[in-house]
Amino acid sequence: MNQRVLSGIQPTGDSMQLGNYLGAVKNWVAMQDGYDAYYCVVDLHAITLDPPEPEALRQRTRIVAAQLLAAGLDPDRCALFVQSHVPEHPQLSWVLECLTGFGEASRMTQFKDKSARSGADRQSVGLFTYPILQAADILLYQAHQVPIGEDQRQHLELTRNLAQRFNAKYGQTFVIPDAYIPTAAAKVLDLQDPTAKMSKSRPDNGTVYLSDDPAAITRKIKRAVTDTENEIRYDPEAKPGLSNLIGILASLTGAEPAAVAKEFDGQGYGGLKAAVADAVVAFAEPFTERTRELLDDPAELDRILARGADKARSVASATVAAAYRNVGFLAPVVG
């Protein structure tokens, strides 16, 4: 049997951005064939900070699910589901919270950083405990591998610690997950500030959204910050802006960054930017059309998500039943 992989994405905006796709989702698509893959729209996490209006959250959840399907996730090859459709997530999270030390939770990066900026009293309990819910997300599915970026290593280490702690106290219950960091994963940088990752939280002129129209995509890429030289070479340290564009084109075409740089040697930055824009538009246009088709058929989208939730619950319910039994909770009498 293939190893199991679990990953999730928050419905925090009205569109996936290019960095989400190239840095994570493109690899999720590839992993469907070699792994027993579970992918989750983590709507419970989306209310941790500045909860959106209810209708906005529902719409964003539908959008990100549709975009994941448009990007290549296949319901016949993976389980795609919405986190809140599987009630075992918070059920397991409570047990794990009771095994987590206060100091341990307070050292998690996001809570620590937010507290340092605006005070712990202004943060929600949800922000404090969300890494534990994230641990539950992973352990529920007995995941062997978790695709993460380097910035998520701390959270995965907490997950591993909690699994080991539970197993030591209550007996073997959880698989201890390992990080899966694909060597081919692209780290896409902000087009206007190539010292920072491309992000929805940054200004729009440095972020390419896959729902942007072709003119907007082209404009953003052609205005991307590079440097005052005119030499095309892949050198992320010395030429981060230019190397970011080379990396984007390489990831979209399946080429090596060095090969892309060699191809455009002597052509100037304008020619490279035009090629990057064309490649992004060539991906984004059919992606947007497929997303629109899925959103225009909500019954079919709901059917896909319900099917994914059924598959997810078949695993999650067994895990929670085993964890509850091992903790010593009295099993309910059925009938």
Structural summary, described in words:
The chain is built from 12 helices and 5 strands. The longest helix has 30 residues, at 298-327. Helix content is 53%, strand content 7%. The two termini are 35 Å apart.
Rounded radius of gyration (Å):
21 Å
Report the biggest beta sheet as strand number plus sense, adding barrel if it closes. 3 strands, parallel
Please give the order of strands in the largest beta sheet. Answer: 1-2-3
Query: Helical content, roughly?
Result: 40-55%
Count of beta strands: 5
Shape summary: globular
Q: Low-confidence parts, pLDDT < 50 over ≥5 residues?
A: none
Distance between the termini: 35 Å
**Sheet/helix structural class:** mainly alpha
Q: Main traits of this protein?
A:
5 strands; three-stranded parallel beta sheet; 335 residues; 12 helices; mainly alpha; two-stranded parallel ribbon
